[in-house]
Amino acid sequence: AAIALATPAAAQEAPQLVEAFTITAELGEVLDVGETVRGPRRIIPITGGQVEGEGLNGTVRPGAWDWQIDRPDGCTDLEADYFIETNDGALINVVNRATICRDEEGNMLPVFTRPAFEPPLGEYQWLGQGMFVGQLGPAVGHDGPAVRITIYRVE
Question: Does residue 44 come out as left (phi exceeding 0), alpha (psi in the -120 to 50 range) or beta?
């Protein structure tokens, strides 16, 4: 069955990205799992961090992991699974996936993530009702190893 849209596709505007918040995830020592049937695997502990933005502030709970696997084409797939605890005590599960690739000279290409949020009902349920894109990079100036993910809402 076809889905009827209120506006014909040709008349719809292209989606826009609106900055929502930033996640700084602090990282522990890399655990090299070794060769698997899918390729070399490593796990990076997520040991804490901060979340800052309009409508969402809190911390990244320790005890989570970033699972990475190297592909035969030279890229790396990652899947990070962690919890944000908001300043008012709500827990939000985040599963963030990305593919990291390098150009022919070995320089890392821009990394965009596909975060999915599982918030509680109520004030933060907008996270589970929208589409989001993240931009991943190093957390420059942070004490210790960390990454910064700027999260954009697709509107």
Answer: beta
Model confidence pLDDT, tens digit, residues 26-61: 999 999 999 999 999 999 999 999 999 988 999 999
Element housing 128 (H / E): helix 126-129
Asked if 153 and 134 touch (Cβ cutoff 8 Å), the reply is no
CA separation for the pair 24, 139 (Å, rounded): 7
Question: Cα angle at 68 between 148 and 95, to 5 degrees?
Answer: 60
The SS3 of residue 73 is: coil
pTM: 0.89
Q: Which tokens is 142 given?
A: 């942070």
Nearest CA to 40 out of 70, 72, 73 is that of 70
Residue 77: how many CB atoms within 10 A of its CB? 15
3 state SS of 9: helix
Amino acid at 111: V
Sequence letter at residue 29: E
Q: What share of the chain is helix, strand, coil (3-state, %, to 5)?
A: 5, 60, 35
Residue 4: strand, helix, or coil: coil
Q: Which two tokens stand for residue 27?
A: 């990282």
How many angstroms separate the CA atoms of 107 and 83, rounded? Answer: 31
